[in-house]
Amino acid sequence: MSSPAQPLAESVVQSVDWLAIAPPTIAAVVGLAVLVADLFVGDTKKALLGWTSVVGLTISLMALLPLLDGDRATFCLTGAPDVCSYTADRFTLVIQFLVLGGALLAALLSMTALKDAKKELPEGEFWFLLLSSAAGAALLPASRDLATLIVALEVASLPAFALVGIRHGDKRSSEAALKFFLSSVTATTVSLLGISFVYATTGTLYLTEIADRIQNVDSNLHTLTQAGVVLTLIGFAFKTAAVPFHFWVPDTYVGAPLPVAAYLSVVGKAVGFSGLILVTVVALPSYADVWGPALAALAALTMTVGNVGALKQQSTRAYSAVRLLAWSSVGQAGYLLVPIAAAAYSDDAEQAIGSTVAYALMYAAVNLGAFSVAALVSRTKPLNRISDYRGLYASNPATALLLAFFLLCLAGLPPGIIGLFAKVTVFSAAVDAGLGWLAVVMAVNVVIALFYYLQWTTLLFRAPEGAPEPHRVPAPLTTAIALTGIVGIALSGAPQLVLRFADTGLF
Q1: Which ranges of 247-287 does DSSP label H, i.e. alpha helix?
Q2: Domain segments of the chain: what residues?
Q3: Smaller CB count within 10 Å for the chain: N or C?
């Protein structure tokens, strides 16, 4: 085994490949530009900051196109050009597409929310925080060393704390931000402790080098290595909202502005799960006998607790629609964990990871669609109770039909073919890996979830209690609902495209 001390020459990086790092860099630069511009833009023209942010995120997405022609890497060691801190491979591009696309849709929702909130939400700070978080989230899947991974995780998380508590004078928002902050700081502390143990025993922070060296660790350091692996996994379990580290989710989603809750439900999950995949499958494949059973148990526990929590939501309770989506997101996190756990047992780990990425893409589109409709309803029904959706079809047929489609996708029922396809893909990953018991647990949870998704869906078409209340849909909100609807319907017509797109090429 090589010495833990790295030669000084190896710390010198090569020239920067600006094209490879363009997507997160553009988001970060636009965020800084918006923050500075906020000092000079009058109150009547604050909407320009929102449109600038939307354009910036669109350009960040377009910057992914030149990277499709092959893998690129930068910030590599001069002594080992194949050992790099930043890699733009297929896995990176798929997750960056999901992250930046999710941030773009959240930005469209935010434009309407900021206009309605008037002085409650400071616009310049809001857009800077959203773009900064998106930049960190886009950096994370490209990270190939533990230091960059943690930095990206914190760049994505720290602005999110402020976004959750950004409402001036709102105690519920402040409490949600505090819970989110404390849980995330705890997760980071545990992760850093685990990473320090791994570094102490391997002498490197690069994921591929850890995978090689950790197999030959001195027998005297074996216990320290195992502790490092376990602590690192616990830290990332917090980030994915896996049970029992999920306690912050319902209150955070309810306390945050609705676009921020939508952002966290998709981009926050993408950050946690991409980091978990990189740590387990890339850096620690030789410890699959440790993280495989642990993630399988977490998957079963998470999907069960999440679905039971959603089942218990009362339709007349304030913010019950958002709480149901919050608990639903915990349940969906359990499904996302299944293929990662299966990768520990499967001969084809790449296919298992592709199942997680495919499910995440489906979930992102339809969950953001559900949040978009919730944002529309909250404009006239600020308490956003599930009962407030009764008779939505009578006042806004197109929106009601789309929400029904989104909920059926999440439930895995036709005509939401993409949801059914994603669940079958995850189910197959568990069966192929020999995790029959986990497939049974998943099947039971799918049945539990049917109840609350169908209950909400049928409410949309019941006769309204009073006169139908028309909903005027602003252009940005219309765009968000339409985009998610088009993506969901198109993928339901050709669900195999998701698996082809999610072919990560990580190995």
Answers
A1: 249-255, 258-263, 269-277
A2: 289-507
A3: C
